[in-house]
Amino acid sequence: VQLQASGGGLVQAGESLRLSCAAPGTILDIAIMSWYRQPPGNQRELVTTQTNGRSTWYWYADSVKGRFTISSDNAKNMVYLQMNSVKTEDTGVYFCNIVAGGRHYWGQGTLVTVSS
């Protein structure tokens, strides 16, 4: 089972971009949703996480805090990443990750390129 990430592309610094991630309907009881990114020549890093439960908890990397927002549509099994005021250092392949039933599911990655 693989998630489908989309929405990447080429944007200029300061612009906005919205990434989407679709999870199959067979994945139930999603506990954690995250976006990771892998900059060129670097390791994959965690960008943001949303946990579901009695209350929703959010975490953002310092580098994106105040600019990126994770959200979800649980009825559609969709996860989104709204990227505002993008910077050249936001360039990389973005991956969505879902934890459900104790298992990790990954998307294939979508490339975001930010030009100056």
The low-confidence parts are none
Number of alpha- plus pi-helical segments:
0
Sheet with most strands: 7 strands, mixed
In total, the number of strands is 11
| Global geometry | globular
**How large a portion of the residues is in β-strands, by DSSP E?**
over 45%
Average pLDDT works out at 94
Oligomeric form? single chain
Instruction: Find the structural class using helix and strand composition.
Output: mainly beta
What gyration radius follows from the Cα positions, in whole Å? Answer: 14 Å
> Could you tell me how far the N terminus lies from the C terminus, measured between alpha carbons in angstroms?
37 Å
Question: Percent of residues in helical segments?
Answer: under 10%
| H and E string | EEEEEEEEEEE
Describe it.
The chain is mostly beta strands and 116 residues long. Helix content is 0%, strand content 55%. The chain has no helices and eleven strands. The radius of gyration is 14 Å and the shape is globular. The chain starts with a strand and ends with a strand. The model has no long low-confidence stretch (mean pLDDT 94).
